[in-house]
# Entry
Amino acid sequence: MSTVDTVRTRLDALPDVGLVIAFIASIWAVMLVLAIAVGGANWANLAAGFVGSVTVLIGGYAILALALNLQWGYTGLFNIGIAGFMAVGAYTTAVLTAPTDPAAGAVPGLGLPLWVGLIGGMVMAAIIGGLAALPALRLKADYLAIVTVAFSEIIRLIVNWDGLAEVSLFGVPFGTGGATGISFKSANEVASTFINGVGQPIVAAAEGVGVSGPNLANLTYGILLLLVVAASYWVLARITNSPFGRVLKAIREDETVTQSLGKDTRRFKIKTFMIGCALMGLAGVLFRGQAGYVSPQQFRPTITFYVFAALIIGGSGSNTGSIIGAATFSGLLFYLPARLGENVSLGGTRAPGNIIDAVAGLGSLDPLPLLAYTISNVSTLRFVLIGVVLIYIIQNQPEGLLGHRNEPATSVSLDRAQSGSGGETDE
Amino acid sequence: MSEPDAAPRQETAVTSDAIESPLLVVDGLRKEFGGVVAVDGATFSVAEGSLTGLIGPNGAGKSTTFNCITGIHEPTGGRVTFDGQSITGLPPYTLANRGLVRTFQIARELSEMTVIENVMLAPGGQVGESVIRSVTPGLRGDVIEAETAVRDRAWETLEFFEIDHLAHENAGNLSGGQRKLLEMARVLMTDPEMILLDEPLAGVNPTLEEKLLERIHELRREQGLTFLLVEHDMDVIMNNCEHIIVMHQGSVLAEGDAETIKSDERVLEAYLGGDV
# Structure
């Protein structure tokens, strides 16, 4: 039995919510162990920092992976413009909520409350998503992919454009800030105010063991993001486990058949695309805009491919798998190696300057130079690791960790009714 | 003859055997792919409650005619009328919702979905197909109720076709014959008035063939369904269909009951490869 099979069998035995909680908790445990191992007297603060950051990453990627799972995993809509739809959400929220009287040199916004901004961001991302989908959905799947990637770059170039950095409409000044970006009151700041206000005893207790205020705020924000993940999961599970979700799955399998069975597939595809884009917009502001600042650099196409990697690892077509995949990708493949590289050192061995020198050490049976090189360059080499994991998964477990599971698309149990009319036993 | 209106040259064959209450009327149907004329003025009608056979040598335009009737292709010319209303060029989903459905020549099961999911997909106008209703707590009661009804009907339909033991199996794991049964079960769940069957018996063993034909006759008898059947097996057509349409080179060559067709010189020539 291969390792993957063993992991799979264990994962299968747990109910979905328990599975997700256990998985995230074990990532936290790994972070805690790492903090204790390298932190010395400062371990508690370090642990809070590690756990906080990894939770924010998991939360952000989980929302994105869930959204992509609805579009691609369920419906087969190949959206490679995730970054663009995130940017639409983030920028809309930023423009709506940025203060009307900003600090010198910054761009003013409309000064609306954060919740208005978040809803506005989601609605705008959904509208732009719908517009992108409208012409492309009439064509074959490949065209949608081309249109979405083009849209995402167009959006990034537009927000980067000087001409919209600061404009005035009906005497109200606002803008995107161009290449310098825009600052606004972030959700993170709200969480921080919250924990420092209502959660004063917690703050005091945390400071007692040496956890700093910012680290505690970050941890609070991470947990807040997980609540958003839970809410998204709940909504998406209801959407996918319903007659609506059944049509989506059918579109993925064979659109002509679905149409022949009386379903207006275009309507379903556009709705689905808009819902997914709205979630991506929300993730754009909550995740990329967590520090209260957005700039075009944060919405490069790379993030699109990270989300695809997360979903492929977790198993496209499974909501639970999306979260597991997001946690695996962001926690274990993306965040952990970087922290290991920063905090682990090999006594006296200095890292060689390049890979040739590092490998040369092996000639004299000395693995230390290579090891030291690997550790000091881990933040670059982790992408090699991600690539290796992807190749392994695609070859040995193409459905991802949980994609093989059937999550029936229905709102009720599919077992035969137990009314016992007697008709069932008739042959 | 390129004009769709030129079709009435077949009228002589039709009038001798005029159909009293046609459910489906195809009039001068024409379909071109680039320079190739696949269907060239086909004209025929299908009586309500009948089992009509559509035969013809390979390339006669049977499948293209099917695709034009069911909205997969848009016809280049001609008219299709169903239940007294023009349905020419309407999309497949509109036709299905009006009661005209089809199966495919090569069974197209939704392979990554279970058999019962396949069957539960089919019924039209399910309340749960609205996102808002499926998600919102207050509105979801109706969805659950409708789902339970659809599920129970799905089980009955699977039992009717004797594939209920496969309900939780992925459709992709079914054998060729079982897939044909699943297709039939699926279209039946749409509550159709008329079913177009594109070679439902191809690659099906004799026992299963018997079973499928039995089901078709039962559905006609008990629910008054109308069937139009494309099939290559002559015996099946001759023994089961009361009305047979022969297509050749894109248009209708002959029409009538089994005896008429069997004794038609033109049909024999078309099948034996003589020049017409």
Strands of chain A lie at 167-169, 172-174, 182-183, 293-294. Chain A touches chain B through 39 residues (CB under 8 Å). Residues 3-344+377-396 of chain A form a domain with the ABC transporter involved in vitamin B12 uptake, BtuC fold (CATH 1.10.3470). DSSP finds 17 helices and four strands in chain A.
